[in-house]
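User: My instructor asked us to take a sequence, write out its structure as tokens, and then describe one feature of it. I'm not sure where to start. Here is the sequence I was given:
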Amino acid sequence: MTSSPSDYRRGILAMCTCMALFLVQDSFTKLASARMPTAQIICLRGMIACAMLMVWILVTQPRAFRYLADRGMIQGGVRAAFDALASFTYLWALFNLPLPNVSAINLSGPLLLTALAIVFLGEKVHWRRWIAIVVGLVGVVIIIQPTGSAFNWYSVLALFGTFCGAARDVLTRTIRLEIPTVLLTLVSTGLATAGAGVGVLIQGWPPVAWGDVLMLGAAGLFLITGYQFMILSLRITEASVVAPFRYTSILWALLFGYIFWGDVPDPLAWVGIATLVGSGLYLLHRDRLGRRIAAGSAPAP
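Assistant: Let's start with the prediction itself. The structure tokens for your sequence are:
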């Protein structure tokens, strides 16, 4: 499926909006983690989000539920499983690492997504982009710093969650456009909530303050709205095109991490962040140049 220039613009804008919404959601969720266990947070946030989505569908798209029996929802279910796994591992790491560091590791997502899009979606990528992918992954290793006392298994967990997210995004690209985006969001949120419910049975359900309920309600709203924009961007635009725009999240992560927790990455982590973002910006440059060459407005390199 080939995207038009207007699709490119819409997809890019949707991805940028998604990243901002997700970072606001991350900040609210991390604030609540100081008083609540992980499974309880995901479960409560998910229940609120699912209730919002059910109302949303009933009011705006009541016929969307008929697609639950569609064969395309098999892919939607697999996508939801990867999404749930990505959510659990990412939040587990988020609750044990500074927000900017987790977000920086999560920036390997565009590189992983580009690689998976090549293998599973048949998207064509020049050798220069392969070099950019390798350089970006080197940046991830620098951020994780897997040597001596700097080694942290939560960093590895965050990287694994990022891989699951990339697999989820590749599957999103394969789902037919007829299946409503909001229904895919509901299935993903519902599966993650059910999985968290199992964790609650093990961890228990401590009393929850109303302030935390409101905070997680806000997080749920930002989460499902961000999901809508993310799914939209991947359904109308090639995955390798919108992937680099995930890098806009680092700006929000640094801002929120500093405001709420006073987190500042160490000097070596800054080197890794710069390496990772630089490789992503190069991928963006290659995409723009490639489209200009295709349109006959620029000479081939």
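For the description part of your assignment, you could build on this observation: The chain has one domain: 5-295. Try explaining in your own words what that tells you about the chain.
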